[in-house]
Every structure is written in C-alpha cells, then in structure tokens.
Amino acid sequence: MLATLRRLNPFAMSSAQLDLLAKYTACDVSDALLKLNVPGAGFIPDIGPLKAGTTRVVAPASTVHFSPKTTQSFPQPVGDKPELKDPADKNASKIAPGTPYADLVNPETIVVLSQPEGQACAVVGGINGVRMEQLGAKGVLVSGRVRDLDTLKGLKIPVWSKGTSSVGAGAQTKAYAVGYPVELGDVTVVSGDIVMLDPAENSAVVIPKDKVDAVLELVPKLVDADEKCMADVLAGGTVKEAFATHRGQ
C-alpha cells in the first residue's frame, strides 16, 4: 500500500518518561547505552544543529527513506535504493508518486530522514520544513543535506543535518518510504525509538525503545558517580583515585 495521507502518531511513550530523559545530557545517555551494549552507544556522528541553542528535545522517531533518481543535470544515479527492513511501524509504506513526504509527518515525533550517501542535493528545504512544523513535528534530523537555511533557522523546531546544498531534492532523489528502519552509521533508528537532540553537547543520540526503562534506571547512578568524581578531583584528588572510588575502575 502506498502512503498518500498524513498518519497519526502510533508511538506510545509517556510524557513522564520523555521529561525524565530530557533532564540528562546526550553524554549521560550515551554512557548508559554503552553500559547496555547498544551499538554505537546510540550516537549519530557527523551531524549537528543548524543554529545554536540550549533546549534539549526528546521525542519518538518517525522515519523517511529517500531513493536515487536521475535528471539531465545529474545523469548518473548516486547512492543505493534503500532496502526496506523490519521491524517497521504498523503504518509503514512506500510513498505514492506525487505525494510530498512532509504531508505524511507523524505529530509529536522527531522526523529522521535518510538520504543516499554522496548526493549533492538537499532533501529538506524551507517549504517542507514549515509543513513538518505545522503538522506537529518536534524536530527534524537529516542524514543528508538541507537548504533554505534562513527559513529553517527561523522554525520553532530544531533542524539537524550533515550538510547543506543550494540544489533541491528533485535533482537527484525522491522520497521513497515512511516508517521503515534507517541505518545511520552504527545506529539503526526504528520508528518509535527515542531521539535526543542536545545542542549543548552538539550530539544526537537514539535510545532503542526497548532500552528506555533500563536507561532511566541506570543514568542517575552514572551521573551521581560522575558528580562524586568531579568533586574529588576539584578537591585535589587524582582521576585514578576518583574513578576507583566511584566508578569501580
């Protein structure tokens, strides 16, 4: 079935859990994910915010895949057609031709867009950015390029990307599917996983949805240990002694 209509948010996550996670930094969360043996410790490398800020945003992920296309200006396809894998969300589908992906956005999610590697065009511009904000997206995370920077920087929601371009998406790529897992380096993002965008740490981290409870249990203990280590070092102690006392290293 091809997606043609905006989808409701199918992801259940209590606001209390999201609020608790937002109290911690991306570094705190990655420390917990490392302890839990999550691939890549959840960190998405080489991606950052378009504008500086301090507000940490935490929300479930929704996903969009793009696929290569050719035009006269770009006659050679760049990148691979995405392989759509399970687990997909219950509304996952390919995108019907002529349907703008921004009209399919899940409200209350951070939209994670996966662009084929090596393309020069942008997959998010001002019009799509405005539409995603209107439909209730909490943020936009682009594994690829964006353009219309003044407009995107003026949005109330954060936009993160790997790079920029002056070229529109139609030059090299097309929106292909929504709701399927995307692979960003060592991190696989499944719809409903929790994304943290932390501009203070310039870091984006993904928490697998089945690890949220474990992270919330572990993070306070790790933060407490780090605070005690810092206090000892500020008092003149060695890092080795502090780690041995509070981290068990």
From TrEMBL:
<protein>
    <submittedName>
        <fullName>Uncharacterized protein</fullName>
    </submittedName>
</protein>
<feature type="binding site">
    <location>
        <position position="148"/>
    </location>
    <ligand>
        <name>Mg(2+)</name>
    </ligand>
</feature>
<dbReference type="GO" id="GO:0046872">
    <property type="term" value="F:metal ion binding"/>
</dbReference>
<dbReference type="Pfam" id="PF03737">
    <property type="entry name" value="RraA-like"/>
</dbReference>
<feature type="binding site">
    <location>
        <position position="147"/>
    </location>
    <ligand>
        <name>substrate</name>
    </ligand>
</feature>
<dbReference type="GO" id="GO:0008948">
    <property type="term" value="F:oxaloacetate decarboxylase activity"/>
</dbReference>
<dbReference type="GO" id="GO:0047443">
    <property type="term" value="F:4-hydroxy-4-methyl-2-oxoglutarate aldolase activity"/>
</dbReference>
<dbReference type="InterPro" id="IPR005493">
    <property type="entry name" value="RraA/RraA-like"/>
</dbReference>
<feature type="compositionally biased region" description="Basic and acidic residues">
    <location>
        <begin position="80"/>
        <end position="92"/>
    </location>
</feature>
<dbReference type="InterPro" id="IPR036704">
    <property type="entry name" value="RraA/RraA-like_sf"/>
</dbReference>
<keyword id="KW-0460">Magnesium</keyword>
<keyword id="KW-0479">Metal-binding</keyword>
<feature type="region of interest" description="Disordered">
    <location>
        <begin position="68"/>
        <end position="98"/>
    </location>
</feature>
